[in-house]
Amino acid sequence: MKILLVTDQFFAANNGTTISSRRFAQVLRRHGHEVRVAATDPEGLSKTDPLGENAYLFEEYHIPVFDGLVRSQGMHFAKTNDALLKEAVAWADEVHFLMPFALSHHGVKLARELGTPYTGAYHVQP
After folding, report:
1. What are all long-range contacts of 74-81, with beta carbons under 8 Å and residues at least 24 apart?
2. I want to staple 38 with a disulfide (CB 3.0 to 4.6 A). Which of 6, 15, 57, 98 is the partner?
3. Kindly report the CA angle at 42 between 40 and 47, in degrees rounded to 5?
4. pTM (whole model) above 0.70
């Protein structure tokens, strides 16, 4: 099965969401599934990650006023790009959303439009 994981941050393993996402991807791959990721990569870490080769990489979104706080926590949000996200969702047999932010919100709309099954989780620090 081709599974797409949609999460704002995947390659920098500096928080619980990212670590859970990475472990989930590893287990799915061990079970024979093809896994791709839709995420940001402002630090260029996807170049050294096995999942980076087929990742759909989104630009980072900077939140005015709160950007310093967000970055101090090591978090990165994705700027939506519906054309790229549609390509990613169209590739997948199933899409799993891991964060309740703009990238996932747009992804759910596209999955519904394309008739692609999807699931979701919510694992975000306060």
Report:
1. 74/12, 74/14, 74/15, 75/8, 75/9, 75/15, 76/8, 76/9, 76/12, 76/40, 76/42, 77/8, 77/9, 77/40, 77/101, 77/102, 77/103, 78/8, 78/38, 78/39, 78/40, 78/102, 78/103, 80/106
2. 6
3. 85
4. yes
3-state secondary structure of 118: strand
| Residue 77 CB neighbour total at 10 angstroms | 20
pLDDT at 27: 97
In one letter, which amino acid is 12? Answer: A
Angstrom distance (rounded) from CA 38 to CA 68: 24
In angstroms, the CA 27 to CA 40 distance is: 22
Helix 102-114 and helix 82-91: axis angle, to 10°?
A: 50
* β partners of residue 95: 4, 118
Helix (H) or strand (E) run with residue 39 in it: strand 34-40
Q: What is the pLDDT of residue 6?
A: 97
Beta-ladder partners of 118 = 95
Q: What value does the mean pLDDT take over residues 58-87? A: 89
